[in-house]
Amino acid sequence: MGFVQADPIRAPARAQDLILRHRVKSYRAGDLERQYAKLGVHEDFFINYGFVTSELQALMHPRVKSRVPAEGCLPVPGRRKKRAELLLEFVRERGIVHPQQVDKHFAHGRVTNYWGGKSNATTHLLDAMHYQGLLRVVRREGGIRLYSVHQHGAGPVDKAERQMRLDALIDAAIHVYAPVPEVNLRYLVRRMRYAAPQWERELTAALKRSQARLAHAEVEGVIWYWPDGEDPVRSETQDAVRLLAPFDPVVWDRERFELFWGWEYRFEAYTPLAKRVRGYYAMPLLWRERVIGWANLAVTDGQLKADVGYVDSSPPREAVYARGLEEELERMREFLGLDSGVR
């Protein structure tokens, strides 16, 4: 895939694991984190925060002069540069560091974070240096990132190479999320200001090149784009149920979701309880070629419990659907490492 979006919520597993279970044979919850050091992947910010391949990461960097996306990717202030230089030398001397080690040594105190609250200043600075490519996440311990110094290769030498990199970044995003309607092709290209903020002024021209380069067709007044060489018509309908993470590429594009399936899906984990419509972590339920409902899953006393809802108020009547749902819940149980039995 090149990129998998990450999210820390476990309901019943993290988004990256829920996404990969449909795409990696015999995948189990936590495999990405357990195998991270061996896989040649990196935690980084592409169009969102997640895991990227080394090849994709190389296209985005170096971006050492930019702040993190939540700060608008503005230039780094001089005072922070000096702190970063001292911290970088500290990490270089020790090899791998935990944020607590850094905080104990420097005692940076607390700062106003990107959302107006208060955060540990050390964590704030480590996040910024990670985004700039000065540090790499080596692994996690208890969910906490451990860092080492990282050195990216040289940037593009001329305009032609910059354009090549931007085009490749856009193609990588389209490969993950295609087919996309034109409005969301524009959106994905705008998101490249986070992947490569150093080339933000060149995104308008990059959009025009992508519109000419990508395969496309107009259907009922909407222009759709997909990677050149792919045939969107070639597909096989399977009598299978799939429970998808809210950030799965199949459902990530909410505009496309409504165009395809005719109803509005929203992620409600951060919605006040009284205003939720489908649940805290409602997972879209794909049956054959349509998303017909959702399921909220929870693990209680070692058993998987499923609360399933449907757009049309009731499930399909075919016996093959009921069997497909049970099979999907059994796959989820295996993925989570639970005993048999779904309630």
- Helix- and strand-based class? alpha+beta
| Sheet with the most strands, sense and barrel status | 4 strands, antiparallel
Question: In terms of per-residue confidence, which ranges show pLDDT below 50 for 5 or more consecutive residues?
Answer: none
Alpha carbon gyration radius: 22 Å
Q: Percentage of helical residues?
A: 25-40%
Which percent range describes the beta-strand content?
15-25%
Molecular structure report:
This protein is 38% helix and 21% strand. The model has no long low-confidence stretch (mean pLDDT 91). It contains eleven helices and 14 strands. The protein folds into three domains: 3-149, no CATH class; 159-226; 241-336, no CATH class. The chain has helices at 15-20, 31-39, 54-60, 78-94, 99-106, 121-132, 159-177, 182-195, 203-213, 254-261, 319-336, and strands at 3-5, 41-45, 49-53, 110-112, 118-120, 135-141, 144-149, 180-181, 215-219, 222-226, 241-243, 283-287, 290-300, 303-310. It is an alpha+beta fold and 343 residues long.
List the helices and strands and how they pair.
Elements: E1 3-5, H1 15-20, H2 31-39, E2 41-45, E3 49-53, H3 54-60, H4 78-94, H5 99-106, E4 110-112, E5 118-120, H6 121-132, E6 135-141, E7 144-149, H7 159-177, E8 180-181, H8 182-195, H9 203-213, E9 215-219, E10 222-226, E11 241-243, H10 254-261, E12 283-287, E13 290-300, E14 303-310, H11 319-336
Antiparallel strand pairs: 1-3, 2-3, 4-5, 6-7, 8-10, 9-10, 11-12, 12-13, 13-14
